[in-house]
Design a protein that fits this description.
mainly alpha; 129 residues; 2 domains; three-stranded antiparallel sheet; MerR_fam; Multidrug-efflux Transporter Regulator, Chain: A, Domain 2; HTH-type transcriptional regulator HmrR; 5% strand
């Protein structure tokens, strides 16, 4: 295979996802490890790690597992050298819609973070530490 293969613990450390979460993403078909060791352990490539990081980024923005799967498929279509022009255009349109949605979710999260900071500052007046 040539690429560095990582065991699930190393992938967990790199992605800041729990081992349980990574296994779940494998079970639901979001990110399948690229290989297995002779002992049956999951082995991941950097491309697999990149997909897991993309999922980690989508989760707080409210994307469902199916929506995450669709985003990853669109990215795969654009990365593929043999995708048709129609498939590429559909993938670009889909990713543009997801981008708009992500921007809206970021705006909401930014507003919520401001509220949390206001409360933290208000409570700090009563802190003994």
């Amino acid at each position: 295979m040539g690429a560095e293969l990582l065991q699930i613990g190393a992938v967990s450390a790199r992605t800041e996802l729990s081992v349980k979460t990574i296994r779940h993403y494998d079970e639901v078909g979001l990110v399948t490890p690229s290989a297995r060791s002779t002992g049956g352990f999951r082995l991941y490539t950097q491309k697999d790690v990149d997909r897991l990081i993309a999922i980690r980024r989508m989760k707080p923005l409210g994307f469902s597992l199916d929506e995450m799967r669709d985003v990853l498929a669109a990215l795969d279509t654009l990365d593929s050298g043999d995708s048709s022009a129609d498939d590429r255009n559909r993938a670009i349109d889909h990713l543009a819609a997801c981008h708009r949605r992500a921007e809206q979710a970021c705006a909401t999260l930014t507003r919520q973070l401001a509220y949390a900071r206001e409360l933290t500052a208000q409570l700090a007046r009563f802190s003994r530490g």
